[in-house]
Amino acid sequence: MMYRSLNSHSRRDFLRYGGGAIAALALAPAWSCLPSPAGAYIPAGDTPPPSELDVKIGQMILAGFRDDQLKDKNPIIADIQERCLGGVVLFDYDVAWHKAKRNIKSPKQLAALDAALQATTPYPPLLISTDQEGGRINRLKPAYGFPPSYSQQYLGELNDLAFTHECADTTAETLVSAGINLNLAPVVDLNVNPECPIIGYYERSFSSHPEIVTAHALEVIAAHHQHGVLTTLKHFPGHGSSTSDSHQGFVDVTNTWSEIELEPFRNIIQAGMCDVVMTAHIFNAHLDPDYPATLSQPTITGILRDQLGWDGVVITDDMGMGAITQYYGFETAIELAVEAGADILAYAINSAVFDPTIPARAFQVIKGLVENGFIRESRIDQSYRRIMRLKDRLMR
Hints:
Strand content: 5-15%
Number of helices: 13
CATH architecture: Alpha-Beta Barrel
Distance between the termini: 28 Å
Structural class: alpha/beta
Largest sheet: 5 strands, parallel
Strand order of the largest sheet: 6-3-2-1-10
CATH superfamily: Glycoside hydrolase, family 3, N-terminal domain
CATH topology: TIM Barrel
Oligomer: single chain
């Protein structure tokens, strides 16, 4: 593949890599020619600049971090500047983590943090994400000074699309003011099992009826788009029929899942309203007799991409969840997820046991897999093109 220098192209052109007239752009040779926002990393002395491959791989990682200010020694800075991290996920304080210092404290503090994050990246825009579904799953809580919200179940039971749009409009406006450009919502799982410990229990599903889920999810997405915020459909191929929680361990939906759970994903993709799809760590022997959805090529590439026609970004659910870590080694899980068709690997580091080296380790694993021939660089290129097309929409 021939690469053209960035010298004659703008940063906007760079972000359109693979998405328009610029078929491919050289990154490493033109590092010094890129505009440098305040705080951007500029290699000094004998420190080598990130290579083209480094940039592509870094964009495939979304990570959590600690602290509500971007202090100089925070490892996330090196992840962003030296490893070209493509995105972060924000969490609020939680007693379960012994009041561990997370990211969200107040509207003013959060806006300052997110501005600092964007000023740090050499390749804006950074995807800054959070789970703002509403109801019990919301990171921007009234206790911190943010507007109250309703659960998706409440909105689905009310079944007033105008009210759902109004609520989503408030959410999107809140996200924009905080500097968040990607909401890890809406949930489009069907409420097949109201006793499901991770979907039904937390009132995260609009309904057990796919047409109701589709209609309300489309209102949520439309309201976010009006404010320039991207959204995420989750959890593919459907977590609502499960009887256990993939945060805790193995989840088998072989005998509870049905194809109707694909309907909201199919409908929203066909409507042209899908931005990102998040995978579920659920196992279904009828779809893949070997691996859970996040690590399953038949599920991600076969069903989501080939059958449902989705060629946009696929992000994994947190790779630190028990359904993955209890059964697969760190390196194996990464290789399987990438080969399955995932574009962004999420490491929310959402636990009391916090390891700030995880993003760097994931970066090195992917790079090693490519350099040693276990993953083709053309596969990395696929994900990079999808991510750049997504980010290009944030620049318009």
